[in-house]
Each structure stands twice: as structure tokens, then as C-alpha cells.
Amino acid sequence: MHTDVRWLSRGKFLQRFQDLLDEIIKFLDERGDDYQQLRDLDWQCDLAFLADFTGKLSTLNLNLQDKNKTLTEMMSSIAAFQCQTASMIVDIEKKKFEQFVNIKDHMEKHPNYNFISKKYMTEIRAVVADFEIRFGDCRKIENLVQFISYPFNDSIDHSDIYELATKFADTFQMEHMMLQNEIITLRCDIFLKARSSSGQDFWALVSKEKYPNLKNCVEQLHSCFGSTYLCESAFSYLKQTKSKHRSRLTDAHTLDSLRLAISNYKPDYAKQVEDTQTQCSH
């Protein structure tokens, strides 16, 4: 068992405990320690549920905590998880346990165990309600993000354009009529529409001179940091750097080490070797 783990590995802790439960009980018996709750079937079922469900939350966390994650990708991951919770509730209610492998294993070991599905369905619904509160701001800008992802959606009508312009104007403190005109002009732009599915960065093709307000809104949305990954990873690298094995650690050393750890720059050593003159001419 790990007593100190990195922040993104903590989601696996319960699963490791679940996997080692039999060995832990055996080890405690050999020591003469008696923990009856470890043998309690209700407690074991609760542990199995927590290991399964927190594993799914950990997977979501890993999807969110990554470099170069845009707000659109993160909102999509959160929305997908919220939809998946509905199928989890059905899975628990019907006692299929296709998404809860630890509970399924527990039921196979104890076929006569009285599984109370309502208790776990309530816990899942509580998490869903908490998600609605935590990510309520995502709902407010969901239609804006959808428009930015694909502005030429045929289902958008004139009333939708008015609402989009209103939402953009209220969110970014801009002129409603100018935004509305830019949205209409953009959707009628044959050049941009033909290149919207080319695989290129669509908004890089959009002229800032022609669509100044709309381009400004898009840039602000794209620049949003939806995750603390960069901050957390920097602290994690700093913690590793400031170890007792360092013979010397000054502010300059710390800054240089941190820059090396979090930078994406990769030196082209082959090119540097080619450019190096190993023997000077006489």
C-alpha cells in the first residue's frame, strides 16, 4: 500500500485496497488484530461500490487534467460523464453490474447477499446533483461553445441567432447588433463554410478585420483555463525537485529546474551536432 502518492494517482487507492482486501485480512489475522468490519458483507459491498464509482471519477479527472485541453473538450467530457451516470443508475437498479465489476465480483462470491440498490442509486444521484452545481457555469455558455465548435449548424434559425448574439453580448460586454450582424455574415460566408470541415483550425481562417467582435469572443473563450493542471503539475515538479538529496538548491536552481520540468521545448541535438564545427581550419 502507498502512504504517499502523487495527486493524480490517489483515485486508484480504493481499488488497490479492494484488490488486496483478502491479503489485508489475512495479514491482520496473523498479527492478532481483529477488524470485524472488514468481514462485514454490507461494508464490503460499500467498498466495492466506492472502488467502482471513484474509479470512474478518477478516469474523468485524468481526462480533464491534461495539457492543451480546451474548454470545449472539457465540457464535452463532463457532459458525457453526466449522461453516463444515468446508465449507471439503470445498471444498479436492474442488478446487471456491467459497469460495476467489483460489485459483480462481490455478488458472485456471495450469491445470497441481499443487495439494496436504492442506497447506491441515491449516492449516484447526489453526485449528479453536485455536478449540476459545480459545473452550472458550463450550462450558461454551452450554446456559445456549440456555436464556436460548428457555426454552420443548419438547425440554427433566426431566433437562435438573436439569442446567441444576446448571450455573447451579455457575457463579453459587447454590442448586440454588431455581434448579430457578424454571426449572420459569417454563416453566409461561402469561403469559410467550404473550409469548415477541412480539418484546419477554423477560427484561424476568420478575419479579425471583418469579424472583430466575434473573433474577440472566440479568443476569450479559447483562452479560458478550465483546469488547474498546469498549476498542480508545477507544484508537483517543485516538490520532487526540493528533495533532501540535493546538495545545493538556490532560487536560480529552482527556477531553472522548474522550467526544464514543465517546458515543452525539446532541443534538436542532431541539428546542433551538425552545426558544431569539431575541427577548426588552420
Task: Give the key terms.
single chain, 282 residues, mainly alpha, 3 domains, 16 helices, 66% helix, disordered N terminus, RNaseH-like_sf, HAT C-terminal dimerisation domain-containing protein
Task: Give a brief outline of the structure.
It is built from 16 helices and no strands. By secondary structure, it is mostly helical.
Topology diagram in text:
Elements: H1 13-19, H2 21-31, H3 41-64, H4 71-93, H5 101-109, H6 117-134, H7 136-140, H8 142-149, H9 158-172, H10 176-187, H11 190-195, H12 202-205, H13 212-222, H14 229-241, H15 251-262, H16 269-275
Helix pairs in contact: 1-3, 3-5, 4-6, 9-10, 14-15
Total separate domains = 3
Low-confidence stretches: 1-5
Tell me what portion of residues adopts beta-strand conformation. under 5%
> Roughly what percent helix?
55-70%
**DSSP summary, beta strand count:** 0
Overall geometric form? flat
Secondary structural class: mainly alpha
Order of helix and strand elements from N to C terminus: HHHHHHHHHHHHHHHH
Rg result: 27 Å
Largest sheet features? none
Number of helices: 16
Determine the N-to-C terminus distance: 65 Å
Global mean pLDDT = 85
Organism: Parnassius mnemosyne (clouded apollo)
Protein name: HAT C-terminal dimerisation domain-containing protein
InterPro entries: HATC_C_dom, RNaseH-like_sf
GO molecular function: protein dimerization activity
